[in-house]
Amino acid sequence: MDVHPDLEQGLVTPPTSQLQQHPLHYDPAMYNATAPSTPSTHSWRHPKLTGYRILVIALTASFGISKAVLSYEGLSIIPTTLDWMFGVLGVLGLYWLGLYEKTSPNALPWLFEKDYLCLFAKQSSAT
Where are the membrane-spanning stretches (predicted)? Predict the structure, then answer.
């Protein structure tokens, strides 16, 4: 019996007649909105906002904004130079730092371990 690839990957709901014939692990709760939902044993946690991640966000945002402003002003050489500088130096530097994030996070705990999200949450709740 040939089975549609989407059916094998669980992307579509199999007809009821095929449920007994095909060894597909079928969970009706995944497809039926009226099925009772079971509480999840895993609660979702926001990832840490470390210094490294703040650095990546800040560099990417500043690069994008400065390139957009310079391009809108009609300049072409400076945005291209920024592309090369950020593309080579910035990305290589961030890649090099990213290697330390996984291999030895204790080397720079203020950059890789400390969660700065609480600083932003306190400021946003105070305003």
Answer: 50-70, 82-100
